[in-house]
Design brief:
190 residues; alpha/beta; six-stranded mixed beta sheet; three-stranded parallel beta sheet; 4 helices; 9 strands; 29% strand
Length: 190
């Protein structure tokens, strides 16, 4: 499957993910993924690092940080390039200590088009004794075609995350998160 590159931006607002809502979402993701018994949580640098650390801590499993880049900067309203650059050397070193055929939870802050998640899931699938991979993100753009296993918010505008620099424009808090969603059709293995 090739993800859609047609992210949806209504241009009405910048959403703000507050620190408290981030912490609540991380707890929901950890609770949701506990039955899937991941052997490690893999965070995509930069936006997925803090989420990976919190979820891994709650699940009592190791955290691994991989590097992939889809946007040329972290600025609000930055367009995606359509290309994902994987730091193959770093990622191979980071993943080297994981057991073969392990269960991984790959996390990031947002699934914009799905290209970054798809590139990393594909890269993991090509490893000898490929792991089972589930995905979780805080936010999913409504235009993303990638079948994320678990996410918090559907968004159709830019999102400002707690670890990013001030967007310079007023931001509106995301609505409270009561439950996680899934974009993965039921019954599809990964």
């Amino acid at each position: 499957m090739t993800p859609s590159s047609a992210r949806v931006f209504q241009g009405r607002r910048i959403w703000q993910l507050t620190r408290n809502d981030f912490l609540s979402a991380a707890c929901l993701i950890a609770h949701n993924e506990r039955p899937h018994t991941p052997d490690a949580v893999v965070g995509i640098a930069r936006g997925g690092v803090e989420l990976a650390e919190l979820v891994a801590e709650q699940l009592h499993v190791p955290v691994v940080i991989v590097r992939a880049r889809h946007n040329t900067s972290d600025d609000i309203r930055q367009s995606a390039t359509g290309r994902v650059a994987l730091d193959v050397e770093h990622n191979e070193r980071a993943l080297a200590g994981l057991p073969q055929r392990c269960r991984l939870l790959l996390v990031d802050d947002i699934c914009g088009t799905g290209a970054t998640l798809e590139a990393l899931v594909g890269s993991l699938a090509r490893r000898p004794q490929a792991p089972t991979v589930r995905t979780a993100v805080l936010c999913r753009n409504e235009g993303a075609a990638f079948p994320v296993d678990a996410y918090g918010w559907d968004v159709a505008d830019w999102v400002h995350f707690p670890w990013e620099k001030d967007p310079g424009s007023p931001a509106e808090p995301l609505p409270p998160l009561a439950r996680l969603r899934s974009a993965r059709p039921t019954g599809l293995p990964r």
